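User: two proteins, same treatment. go.

Assistant:
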Amino acid sequence: MKRRHMSLCFLVLCLTATLLVGVTSSAEYDPWVDGNDDGIIDIVDIVNLAIRFGEEGTPINKTALLLELQDRVAALETRMPQKGYISVPAAAFNPYESAWDTRNSGYHLFNYDSFDAWFFGSVQLPHGATVTNFTTYWKDSGTNYVECDLRRCSSNMIYTMASADSPEISGPGLGSSYDDTINYATVDNTQYMYTLYVSIPYSASHTDYYFNYAIIEYEYPA
């Protein structure tokens, strides 16, 4: 019986190969028929099919299988970290000394005093998030620089997480800086508070330097 089955398979193979000689198929490529996944439906695939001729089993719903795979991929994508952003404008900052001569237009932070002035702005980061980037926007038209730090603070300690200062050379005017090498990157609101520190140099015109805003980029679990 087995010999008869093999003879039948061989006969089918020979007849099929004969019919295929000199014939070019115009049918669309079907990857399900390409048994060895080499991108060509050829005699190898026919041999594999002929050898298995007569086998029985439970059929597979290929459409349902594809949909299941798509659902698995979507589930994996949703578990990937999601990005979030916090924008901190000039309006969020207060000078260290209220008596200092400073200007805050809401989107520009100026130093009008006769010495360097520094400012603090609070920021509420999501607990458990991971800070990945700190970007600041400023004007620097002098030879000093605008200092901008993201800080983690406890009741008696200050830790600098990132610094994005303007250049310490003759300034380019309007510009931005970023820092993606974040220290203490995981946010822990049970033990720390988070602030931004900005120092603006003195200038005779009072407008050579100013601070615009900062953007904090973070990731959090889906």
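Protein 2:
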Amino acid sequence: MENTIVECIFDMQFESDYVVENFLSIISNIDGFENIIKLPLHQVPEVIRKNDPNLKLQPLYEITSLKNRDYKITLGDNVIGIAILKSYTSWSKSFYPQIEKIFTEILATNKINFISRVGLRYVDFLESENIFLDKKVNLSINGEEITEKKVFLKIEDSLDDIDYNKIITNHVKYKNSKNSGSIIDIVTSKKDIPTNGLENIFQTIQKLHVINEKKFKEVIGDNYVRQYKL
């Protein structure tokens, strides 16, 4: 079955006494991530960016590697993110090892005082499918089924100290797709993580993945149970 994952992103929000360029120099020494692009927000003065909650977590740089073209790193005053660019194969092979490598190097410098949030986002696109026709998700209003209508369903909750945000939509297109289909967009996150133990941080990141996968399987049909996150 074709891989349905179209986006996979991990990000870490943090507090630090250092300017963003200190982290830029660290990242550029990892796997040849030396291709640096300044994003438009970089033109805004630092004092304004850091005092505006809408700006402080936005990226200033986009960093890629000519040697390793499979990933993209984004860096802002208080956030570092990594996205996979190639076709996703599995969490343990495609994505987690790169997360562990990059953030081990960053955290080892002790330039991060506190991790305010870690988050993992998966977006799946099921082309030509209406997920609400699957009997795992039953929707009705006053007894009338609405599975054939265009629906936007958002669920927010927590499980095992992990927050999750799950959005399910049907009859939509993803970017340049030829056909419409359904999108499952799940974000798992955890706030306020101490930086005094790498093992605890990476256990939390692994847990984000476990809960994300669990929430995916709760709504997806048996014929679409994902093999790609294992």
